[in-house]
Amino acid sequence: MNRKKKSSPKIPGNLSRSIIDILRKNSGKTYNYKQIASVLGVNDASSRNQIIKKLAQLAAKKEIKEIDRGKFTIEENKNYFTGVLDLTTKGYGYVMVEEFADDIFIAQKDLNAAFDGDTVEIYVYNRRRRKRSEGEITKIIKRKRVEFVGTLQQKKDFGFVVIDDKSMYTDFFVSGNKLNGAENGDKVVVEFEEWPEKADSPFGKITRVLGTPGEHHTEIHSILAQYGLPHEFPEEIENFANEIDTSINEEEINKRRDMRDVLTFTIDPKDAKDFDDALSFQKLENGNYEIGIHIADVSHYLQPGTILDDEAYDRATSVYLVDRVVPMLPEILSNNACSLRPKEEKFTFSAVFEIDDNARVVDQWFGRTVTYSDERFAYEEAQHIIETGTGTIPDDVSIRNHAYSVRGALVEAVVTLNRLAKKMRSRRMRDGAISFDKVEVKFNLNEENEPVGVFFKTAKDANKLIEEFMLLANKKVAEFIGKQSPKKTFVYRCHDEPDDQKLAALQTIVGRFGHKLNLKDRSTTTASLNNLLEDVKGRKEQNMVDTLAIRTMSKAYYGTENIGHYGLAFDYYTHFTSPIRRYPDVMVHRLLQHYLDGQKSASEEEYEQKCHHSSEMENLATNAERDSIKYMQVKFMQDHENEEFLGVISGVTEWGIFVEIVENKCEGMIRLRDMNDDHYEFNPDEFSVVGKKTGQSYTLGDEVYVKVKNADLIRRHLDFTLLGNRAEVEAS
């Protein structure tokens, strides 16, 4: 009988790493080559010789230390760094650390239970000059989040939750006593508890059952839960807010500048419920104008150290989903006490300017006020006044469901403010501001929140009027504090210069459509960007070019170190005008009053931390808003599965083509594997895919006809079938 010879264990492929792992995990101890061979389970002469040679090499490179002849150890803190894990959908990740120019690559086997966004300690194995360095996660310092959204796959007395987030590389095991009433197929929120060393999956418990996948409220609540955003206020917060004294009392009025007799009005979207800004207008005897930008005095009601303030800080922003608003403040404040409703007195925080006929600021005043709003206009009503110069609002424009007349003083105010706003905007553009008037996609919803139509929202003169005066207030408040000496801690809205590589890539892409960018210096860059954005208006590539141009820009953020605002061409800028929906504006109000009262500079460290939190929450809210739009687009397209649509190729990748439908801006993908007429290959230099046999190409910006293949509500994904180029389809 032939016996198989038992094979000896082999030396590991990456011997350097294996040796470092042994020494790192046993720091403080020394090992000789025999002990390392024993740990590795090898005992042949060849393996021992390789270990001896490798130990000498690592010591020579100072990766390890020979503290006695033939005895090696590793420095405890050497090659350990801290950073944030960015996971890809393919299961591996990267960690950015300050000490390295490039991110550190982390293979999936080296994630060691870390999830996307976690702050981690990593051990870097090799610092390479030309190739990306590689590392292993050795400790999870802080979890970005511990709750995840997924679908329960229930077994007999346990279950697994498959996570929605594409960057999550594992499911969660949930024991039977932690299912919390969830049933097979339910969309749930699962909370991470632990990941035992020898377990294939982390252990969790279900904290909320969201409902049946695909149902409207289930999916909207899933989007909020995915980003850790709340969908309602705890009862104690509502009760606290309802107990606040919101009366306009004489004692408080006497502490403020009384501007109730000055003509004041609001201009907002017709469906707005909270009005956090108003404008006042009066002509002065010297021919100039006194214009007040009055903002709801949220900080009067929102006192530091209260549970309401803690809740507002945690939220940091209101979240605007397609079918609802998740407010930063309870309704008693957001829609009542702090909403500058018509025919009501309100406590406000104001920036009041004397402005000449050339829209130059001659004088300024900042402080707390009491105001009275004489009128409320929707943008459409204000636009009608601007376009006609009259105060007759027809019933098809009116938000009152009937025609009405506006008194002459209000008409004069709106028309004059529009004229001044245009001068301010023109000056801003000359100074190098960039005009991003990107078309917004909006949905007409029925009573069940089903999308029944799509419309595009564009900014007209009435919108731009409000925008210019809000920008003026934000800019002047920031200048007022920022230019004081000695320097005072303040909250700035910062926007850095665009990424040169992204600008160069944009230059290449728009060149395909006959457009040019001059990137010689800042002034030529901004001027040519504005020309580009103007040139593409109404053209098939508009939305794609607008989107790509925005992506070249740095992301705006809140910070205590002022670097100016590139996109607006302002040296100083802050957010002062929306404290109902943004916590940084509340901080700005508090700091402004603090300094108006002659107080010393606030703690920079404290406010920098608050700025960082606010920026992070803003990003989460933006992602949730985008996801809700994508969800509604998929929902809308479900009812149009057999229709043909004209679209523009908006992106090209190695696995497929993205197409944006012209008439509704819904974007979906044509997968290369579904293009059966040829074998298509990706050409990154030409932003195209090309058929090997026919040479047929589909390139960024091409017009094509598509049909909906699959509208997946749960994954919020659209798959298209390609019908062909526009010319070919229309000719056939």
UniProtKB/TrEMBL annotation:
Domain S1 motif: from-to ranges: 642-723
Gene Ontology process terms (BP): mRNA catabolic process
GO CC annotation terms, alphabetical: cytosol
An example molecular function term from Gene Ontology annotations: RNA binding
Enzyme class: hydrolase
Catalysis performed (reactions): Exonucleolytic cleavage in the 3'- to 5'-direction to yield nucleoside 5'-phosphates
CDD domains: S1_RNase_R (cd04471)
One of the Pfam families matching this protein, by short name: S1
SMART domains found in the cross-reference section: CSP, RNB, S1
Record localization: Cytoplasm
Gene3D superfamilies: Nucleic acid-binding proteins
Listed HAMAP family: RNase_R (MF_01895)
Free-text function comment from the UniProt entry: 3'-5' exoribonuclease that releases 5'-nucleoside monophosphates and is involved in maturation of structured RNAs.
Protein name: Ribonuclease R
Species whose genome carries this gene: Christiangramia sabulilitoris
